[in-house]
Structure formats: C-alpha cells, structure tokens
Design brief:
The protein has 368 residues and is an alpha/beta fold. It is built from 13 helices and 14 strands. The strands form 3 sheets. A 7-stranded mixed sheet has the order 2-10-9-8-5-3-4, with helices on both faces. The protein has a 5-stranded mixed sheet with strand order 1-13-14-12-11. Helix 1 runs antiparallel to helix 10, helix 2 packs across helix 10 and helix 11 runs parallel beside helix 13.
Length: 368
C-alpha cells in the first residue's frame, strides 16, 4: 500500500460547526513539529506550563488533569471519582449532552434524578433545588451544544453548596467563550475539552477541581474501578515522578503544545475581553439569521457564544448549499434533530468575514 500523501486528501470545507475548530497557522506549525519525548526536563517544563495556564483560565489553584481522550473521557473520570455507587445525583435534562450526563452517571451505578428543561430555556434552578434535597451532587451543562443555551452555573453552584451537594459542570461547549471561574463561583468540578472554546486540536480531555471536588477525591473509601481514570493515579505520578514524567501515560506532546499556544493567546488578550468578542460575534450571527426569517432556539438572554442554534424548516438543504460554498455548519441534535441548524463560532473561523459568508449562503439557500 502506498503512503498517504496530503495531496490525496480531498479539499475540505471551512469549519463553522459546533466543534472541532480550525487552528491558526502558528498552532498548526506546532502540530507539524517533530514529536518530542513525553518525559525529561524539557517536556516536564513545557507540560507544567500548559497545566499552569489552564488553571489560570479555569480559575482554580488545583492543577487540572489533562487526559488523552475526549471531553467525555474527562466527564467519565470526574463522575467516577467524585461519586460512589448508590449515591444520588440530580441532572438537568437540557438536551443531548444533558442526557449524556445522566447516562454516564447511571453507568457508574448512581441513582439519577433528571429535571426536565424546556427547549430553548435555561434550567429552572428552583426545580433543581427541590429535586436535589438530600442528593450527593448536581450535574449540569454550562452550554448545551444541542440547543445553544447557556445555563446559570453560578446559581446552580450556590444551590449545591446550600444543600451540601457537589456541583459538577460540563463546560465542554463553554470554557474559553463564557465566563467561568471555579473558585470564585464555588464550583466543585468542571470538565472541558480542547477543540472548542480553547481553540486547540481534539484529543485531550480536561478535568479541574475546586475545593469541594478535591476534598471528595481525598475522602473516598475505595478507589474508582479504573486505574487510568483514577485521579489519585495521576496525583501519584505528579507527586512521585513529577520531576521527569508527571503523568501516568504517554502524552500526545504535539497536541499539548498546540493547546498551550492557544490558551496563552486567550490569556494574553484577557479572558473577559476574549469572551466579550465571542459574545459580539454570536449576537451578530444570531441577529443576521433572524433577519433572514429563522427563529432562535434559545430564548432572549440565554444564547451561548460558541454555538448559535436556529430553527429551520429544511436544515439539510441549508447545510448542503453551504457546502457548495465551501462552508460546513452543523445540523440539529436531539431534541432538535432535523429541526435546526447550528453555527459554531470557534477557532480560526470565528470572524466577521466568516459570519458574512454563512449569512450569504443561508440567504441563497432560502431564496432570499
């Protein structure tokens, strides 16, 4: 079999999907560098630098876990480490990924109570509080990718504290594009991934603990039923091998370096300014699509910055037409499968120019 060459790959459309994102040239250059060893003085210094900037961006003094895998890998690990079989957790049924939180929790033999959330609206925190009385934890998405709705995580964390429950937030579609501060907001754990708001390549999951999350990990009676996903495995390597090999597995070094470059770019701009620009782009995209006759899925005031979700009578036709213009957007996920389009605003293509191209393509698809 002949080697696959870049010239054999088909020409790809520009990504305006709900993840992954396209990378800027400087981060692509890091991916193209020769692979370096995942241990030793040079790597340890580089790895620790990335862990440090991730902690700053997430607002936690507790060093985040950077795990080869997806965001779901880190979700699986976090729920496994913070809860034990038979404990009760409450989840917000906010859409496709809110339901996934419940599925993961059940896979770890937790008792799960799901609180329904009206499509397009933020979760009713009062209903969460009622359902969570006596529960061990509350699990919720910050941004539900399926609906493009942002949920009030600071209020959810406050309810959890009042009830003595842990607050676990899925920030996969929010971190890097929404304001989130683990320690300041009193959140016990946040999970995210690299390929959306953080602007990095896919392949790494991130789990970060607040004070309550760290205390829960340390208080477990028995270790989780996984060596790889056990946070205390990772803690041991940081503590015992930290000078030359601060993680238990081979790390995809190029992915880590590209992620670090992107996160440092965000911090150099300033997180508040970075988020404000994402909010401006999302508002412009949402308004432009509304003017073309589409209806926003999120109610006013709860639309997310990374994913703009709009109802559409024939989303497939819009997607197909945009592909002819060299642009890929996302269709709907349950509960909006076949009912909506979703435009991702992340990475290299989160620009006014690309929004203009999407709006022009949607207008043509609708015959406007």
């Amino acid at each position: 079999m002949e080697e696959l060459s870049p010239q054999e790959l088909p020409e790809m459309p520009e990504l305006m999907i709900a993840g992954p994102c396209e990378l800027p040239d400087e981060d692509l250059a890091l991916l193209g560098r020769q692979v370096i060893a995942h241990y030793g003085d040079v790597w340890t210094s580089l790895h620790n630098r990335v862990i440090d900037v991730l902690g700053k961006l997430l607002g936690t003094d507790d060093p985040p876990y950077l795990m080869p895998g997806s965001g779901t890998t880190a979700l699986d690990a976090t729920i496994m480490n913070l809860f034990e079989p038979g404990q009760r957790v409450v989840t917000a049924s906010s859409g496709f990924f809110g339901s996934r939180l419940a599925q993961i929790a059940r896979s770890h033999r937790l008792e799960v109570v799901e609180v329904p959330v009206e499509i397009g609206h933020a979760v009713d925190v009062g209903r969460l509080a009622e359902a969570a009385a006596g529960a061990h934890g509350i699990l919720a998405t910050h941004v539900e990718t399926a609906t493009g709705v942002r949920h009030p995580i600071e209020d959810i964390a406050a309810v959890a504290r009042e009830l003595g429950a842990l607050c676990v937030i899925d920030g996969i579609a929010s971190v890097g594009a929404e304001l989130l501060d683990i320690d300041a907001m009193g959140i016990d754990a946040v999970v995210t991934s690299t390929q959306k708001g953080l602007g990095g390549p896919p392949g790494l999951g991130i789990a970060a603990l607040g004070e309550g999350g760290r205390a829960r990990v340390e208080a477990r009676g028995e270790p989780p039923p996984s060596w790889y996903l056990d946070f205390r495995t990772w803690d041991w390597y940081r503590r015992e091998w930290g000078a030359w090999h601060p993680h238990p597995v081979t790390m995809p070094t190029n992915l880590v370096l590209a992620l670090g470059s992107s996160v440092e770019r965000i911090l150099a701009t300033g997180l508040e300014a970075w988020v404000a620009e994402r909010a401006r782009l999302a508002a412009r995209c949402r308004q432009g699509l509304t003017e073309l006759g589409l209806e926003s899925v999120p109610a006013p005031g709860v639309g997310a910055n990374l994913v703009v979700a709009m109802y559409a009578e024939d989303p497939t036709a819009i997607q197909k037409h945009l592909l002819t213009q060299g642009i890929m957007i996302s269709g709907g996920l349950d509960p909006l499968m076949g009912k909506a389009i979703r435009v991702g605003l992340m990475g290299r293509t989160a620009t006014d120019e690309m929004i203009d191209r999407v709006l022009a393509g949607v207008a043509a698809a609708l015959g406007r």
